[in-house]
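Incident log, support desk, overnight shift.

02:14 A customer reports that sequence design results differ from what the structure should imply. Their input is reproduced verbatim below. On-call engineer (initials T.W.) acknowledged and began investigating.
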């Protein structure tokens, strides 16, 4: 089976499970120096498969000025589905005699710096799935920021995609929607600490039991 055929098979598998985004990135084209993975792992598995599942707009529509338990449950279920899909992709890659490492969709390893094992966002952007929005999330052309991501690292030499040239343009809905005022004009100026402090406040008030919000995702979806 050729690499082109393998890629087509893996994408078909993902889309049959509800994926709306599928792309390949070469880690050499991604900033990885702050990834919380051994450098040997990155060198051994230099390609990344980026997969996205949608967040239901009907769930986002229930949000007002804070996250709710319905959104929290949906958020968890989407992440669970992504992890199961990444495992399925990894198993198929192993069957083809290549190596694969599924990275959890939503697992914070360093809470102080809010980092996981790697940046699903950077990999998705390098793969051409979307761009970094003002809300510091990956914004896709079709679904806005209402997409959750997972990554599978591999030594399967699939053809990588290219970053999109698009951006948020004149849209600034997320700035007005952010209750923490964490979103700025430029994505690189996003105030991570202001966002995190409000997430902790949402948890303290028992709106939800984990650090999530969803209001900027809701605002971004309304533009699509």
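02:41 Re-run completed on a clean worker. Output:
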């Amino acid at each position: 089976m050729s690499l082109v055929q393998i890629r087509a098979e893996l994408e078909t598998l993902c889309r049959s499970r509800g994926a709306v985004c599928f792309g390949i990135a070469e880690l050499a084209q991604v900033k990885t120096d702050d990834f919380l993975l051994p450098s040997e792992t990155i060198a051994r598995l230099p390609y990344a498969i980026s997969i996205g599942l949608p967040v239901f707009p009907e769930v986002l529509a229930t949000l007002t000025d804070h996250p709710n338990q319905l959104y929290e449950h949906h958020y968890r279920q989407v992440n669970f589905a992504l992890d199961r899909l990444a495992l399925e992709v990894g198993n198929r890659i192993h069957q083809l005699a290549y190596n694969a490492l599924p990275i959890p969709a939503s697992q914070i390893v360093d809470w102080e710096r809010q980092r996981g094992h790697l940046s699903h966002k950077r990999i998705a952007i390098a793969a051409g799935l979307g761009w970094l929005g003002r809300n510091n999330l990956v914004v896709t052309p079709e679904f806005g920021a209402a997409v959750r991501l997972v990554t599978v690292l591999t030594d399967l030499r699939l053809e990588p995609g290219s970053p999109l040239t698009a951006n948020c343009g004149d849209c600034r809905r997320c700035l007005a929607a952010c209750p923490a005022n964490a979103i700025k004009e430029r994505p690189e100026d996003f105030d991570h600490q202001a966002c995190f402090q409000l997430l902790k406040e949402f948890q303290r008030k028992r709106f939800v039991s984990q650090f999530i919000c969803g209001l900027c995702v809701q605002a971004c979806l309304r533009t699509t």
